[in-house]
């Protein structure tokens, strides 16, 4: 996303907004170094002090990480994600625990209020996930598995729950990658057909049990 020249009112807030949007829209990927302070100041048409204040604010909220003598790097794609990444760090058990808290409730709600269109989307993503597993395509598997869980959360029709989950999506993706071994026989792999069946049948108790079960096993092994 090209950065637009800012107006002269509320410069710091405008720069914060533009940098936040650029990060959210993928202009700079997580782990990538953003342009230098001087380059950003020239691109935005503001002073370097304004850029410095904006970067400091985004670093405080967890989106950016300033490495002295090296540059500024993207750390997360949203303030919620940044906050949770600071909380969880690289502790897999903690990430899985947060996932459990959100996904069990999402499964219960999805089984209650999901639409037929949402059920079709969830089914399609699960089919993609399982096909990728059989083909030992780890990248596609991780993406499809993450999108499957996000689709279940969206089917809860709870906007705040969905936003919270979207905020930890990078951590969810990382946890999926860390707990996947496509070399295992499919019979030994983590399956979500039971969860899909429960949501399809509007069986809230089974949906909660299915959502909790595989995460409990992962937590125990982490």
From TrEMBL:
Q: Which InterPro entries match?
A: GntR_C (IPR011711), TF_FadR/GntR_C (IPR008920), Tscrpt_reg_HTH_GntR (IPR000524), WH-like_DNA-bd_sf (IPR036388), WH_DNA-bd_sf (IPR036390)
The reply to whether Transcription regulation figures as a keyword in the UniProt entry is yes
Q: Which residues form the HTH gntR-type domain?
A: 9-77
UniProt keyword annotations, A-Z: DNA-binding, Transcription, Transcription regulation
Q: Does the keyword Lipoprotein apply?
A: no
Query: Its domain of life?
Result: Bacteria
State the Gene3D superfamilies in the record. GntR ligand-binding domain-like (1.20.120.530), Winged helix-like DNA-binding domain superfamily/Winged helix DNA-binding domain (1.10.10.10)
> One Pfam match, by short name?
GntR
Q: Which PANTHER family match?
A: REGULATORY PROTEIN GNTR HTH, TRANSCRIPTIONAL REGULATOR, GNTR FAMILY
Q: What is the protein's name according to its record?
A: FadR family transcriptional regulator
